[in-house]
Amino acid sequence: MTGCRAKCNNCGHELQGLVKRMKIHYKSAQGRKMKVVQVLQRLLMGIQLELVLNMVLPFVPKYDGPSVPSSAASTSAADVPSAPRPSKRPSPSGTPRKKAVLDSFVVRTSATQKAELDEQVAKMVYATNSAFRLVDHPEFVKMVEMLRPGYKPPSRQDVADEHLPQVYEKEVRKCSDILRGSTVCLGLDGWSNVHNEPIICATAMTEWSSLSGGYHRYLRRAPHC
Asked: Whole-angstrom Cα distance, residue 129 to residue 106?
């Protein structure tokens, strides 16, 4: 259909009779038609508004009141007295209120506090004869996180290598201070563990209390449990 011609029924424009060409012309014609319609609508709205104003304005009364003097209009904003600022209400106790700081909502653990907490966790493991791997248990770590957010407990390696000698030396000095100048009755006992390692336990009894301590040949570097 190369030689076929077509004629637009809307605008009378002639073009080649290809469907693609006719669609493009139709869309462009529709676009031009819409633009013309929009222009006509705007003109009509403008004409209607002008007609309405011409009909209404003659019936609007004029304002014949006193005019504002020019000196009053030129008064600066600095001459106008400012409204008094409301005074701060004192607290019921009479003391000034303190601003809320972020520290009251955040739990922070300093290096000194972490060292004390680590040692206390290690003491709990030693005092209860628990396995060192207890501190690595997910439920134990979760419990500590809930009690002290942001604090990470020591690992089982730290409990066995770092804290065990420190706690042992402190407990020996504590026992020495308690028993100094006292008359005691000393009792000894010995056995072996599941690894056939010898263990010696010494018990010092006084008239008011008793202290027991064990000596293990691997006490200063206990194997990881």
From this structure: 34
